[in-house]
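>> received
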Amino acid sequence: MGNELKYKINLRSFVMIGTLFIMWILFAVLTNGKFLAPRNLSNLTRQMAIVSILGTGMVLVIITSNIDLSVGSVMGALGGMAAAIHIWDGINIYQTMIIVFASGILIGLIQGYIIAYLAVPAFIVTLGGLLFFRGLLLAITKGISIAPFVKSYVFLGQGYVPPSIGWIVAVIVCLGLIISSIHNRKSRLKYYFEVNSAKKFILKLIVMSLIILFITFVLNRYKGIPVPVLIMLILVLIFTIIAEYTTFGRSIYAMGGNKEATIYSGINVKRNLMLVFGLMGAMSAIAGMLLSARLNAGTPSAGMNMELDAIAAAVIGGTSMTGGSGKVAGAILGALFMGTIDNGMSMVNLDSYWQYMVKGIILVVAVWFDIRSNKKSK
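>> returned
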């Protein structure tokens, strides 16, 4: 069982990274190298950062065997709220951000309460939320774009981290990766779980660190690491710690793996489920603010279909739709995959319908691969 599970995870990772590598080469050839230009890669990472943030929250939701279809609409509505209360009502930008962030948490908790305590299926609750908050966004913006924001707010969506600080961040990320990997290896050894050989373990850390440093080098060749990417990395780190190193995080995996056993073990499943949706609401608020800052406006179409990209990013990144398994960091890979499709196809001037078709096929294949792998491991 352990060997099969490890094989499944490694195979999925290799397939996804290999496919992504092939796509990058293909788009580079079709665009005469423009796809791999530092400026375009910087834009690509900036675009995928918002999807990755939503996907990070979605990973926890799906691990509990639930779904949230409202995140795109909630994100758009909260971005529109930020524009309306700051630009039209003249509220200080910092107070605006606090109000929007608190509203996101409250929205998530309300939806979570209905799902957990009133036993309404998450699909129905969040589908209703998708419609409600899409309508609320139109009501808030009155169907027009609201602009502009102050420069300090716009910096969150359009700014760059200076190269020197970018290298510091890259080194910290590498050290965090190494420390986390060593900790996980020691834990597995302590409980007699199988691990890779020391040589493979060290080689994996070296390769991953080199990839991080190379990406930093490429981004610094343009203007530096985009601020949304830095915020994304911080949030992924925080959520990884929550998911893998806290009692609350372990209970989330247990809820998705076997809900009845989790209840009998004394874990407050309803409360924890409500908190998971509260965290999703917080991530929607942050994503909404970053999107409105990048656009320098609150727009009536903001967040359209973003819930689909977030779900796809989580699933493509390795989160099982059956619940109980998945990695927060996988959302980055999934979001990068989706962003590559959008960016690359736009650069080769393919019609937008091809993007939807290809992403739909990839999502189905990813879920099929997960189901097939789960059957083999049983």
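>> Confidence is low (pLDDT under 50) at residues 1-8.
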